[in-house]
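G.,

No rush on this.
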Amino acid sequence: MSQFFGRNTAMMAQANANVSPRTRSEQSAFIHRTFGWMAIGLAVTGLVALGVSQSAQAVKTLAHSWVLLIILQLGIGLGLQFAISRISSALATMLFLAYSATIGLTIAILLLVFTTASVFSAFFITAGTFGAMALWGMFTKADLTRLGGIAGMALIGLVIAMVVNMFMHAQGLEFFINIAGVLIFTALTAYDTQRIKYMYLVGPENSEASKKASIMGAFMLYLDFINLFIFILQFMGQQRE
């Protein structure tokens, strides 16, 4: 499955150029299932965030344990990505939902840091941006492989800058990080959406391979949406006094 994810988008598009109506139907079903799982993941995140944010003590405890929270998120996320070929689709689904729940804990902290108006504004801007780029990635005839490669390299630089700024606390660098984050995950949304169009080729509909590919596709889109939301919120959000 890892080999499938690394295929060139143009090659996959060419392989998919002359397919039967039945295959087109399978592709459509795969895409709908993938976006459906992404929506479920976002719903889990939202419900956990809203529930936890009702307790100031719980949020305070989370804020003091943010390092452990990040380690937990990295552990689940990396475990899902690297073990996807060896685990069942049911376990992959559970890991995806567990990851979504842990992100909800992070969002709960942000809900108490930023005003309600800022959170809603950032969410709607994120939804609009994500939707527009997803549509472009879905219907464009251009090969977005190069765009995805550039965004991926930029993401590495972004992570390094974020680690450096954890010690520097430079407002100028933070401003740059937020803008770069918005641009990078905007580009990755289009690229990942285009990849998902051809991920159904990994196996027959309702096979284990297809189900796991659908979860991985949902995980990719989920990460794009959540990170885009967080960077937009940090860029334009107004903090509570």
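When you get to it, here's the other one too:
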Amino acid sequence: MTDKKKKQDTDMQEKSSQDKLLSLFYDHAAGRIFLRPFLMPWFSKVGGWLLSTKVSALVIKPFAKANGIDLTLCKKSRFSSFNDFFIRELKEGARQIDSDPDAFISPCDARLSVYPVTEDGRFIIKHTEYTLKSLVRSKTLANRFDGGLIWIYRLCVDDYHRYSYPEDAVKSENIKIPGIFHTVNPIANDHYPIYKENTREYCLLKTEAFGTLLMMEVGALLVGKIQNRETGRASVKRGEEKGNFAFGGSTIIVVTGRDQAMPLLQIAEKIGTAREICVRMGEKVGTAAK
């Protein structure tokens, strides 16, 4: 994907063929009933199996061309399956990690939106209200981030699906929360609280510059696997690869505490509006609060 396209501000959600199809299902009661069995884990597992077969490799080149994906940036030139391509690793230097100690960076390629967390741990995405407690299923943990910010990085099928740590940190053990697999397209959020229904996994990152961060990976339709490298306690570095998603759109959520990180102006202007801006892994999206 070109820099111009990646930097395009997506204030107005693009009406792609995928959006139109999802709207057909999610915006109508009959469509939502039809979708129910496909949201179960078994469907994503079957889809993952099909996309790991050799014959699935036939769709790689047309998919890359249709989505503007530059295959010359990949470490490998040949892939054994579509999923092998989807979790591709890029060449050294394809993503630049901002080294400014005060820079708060994006952990992935994504469409970023930021929302304030109220004193009682609530935040609203479009018309859907969430609480940090429902997200992590722990009131004690949720209370630590009251008054902070929630950074939602929505990955689409054309994005790079490996992700990294946003800062040097001492990482906690991973906590897994089982669930179902809605698409993370904003169309689904109009009807379901997808971030508290979908399968997800999170950890805490204790940092010097930004206090304690909560980092969560959210699975989605046809994303049956969240593949994290470290599952236990560990010391990690900014830009170090944390893991990858298998095929499909998916989301990474980072929660910062009160007065710990400040979004850049072009992002701050959109806080709480559900308007997204395209970012890349390692790109500066905020600064340490002074």
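Residues 17-26 form the longest helix (10 residues). The longest strand covers residues 110-116.

Enjoy the weekend,
O.
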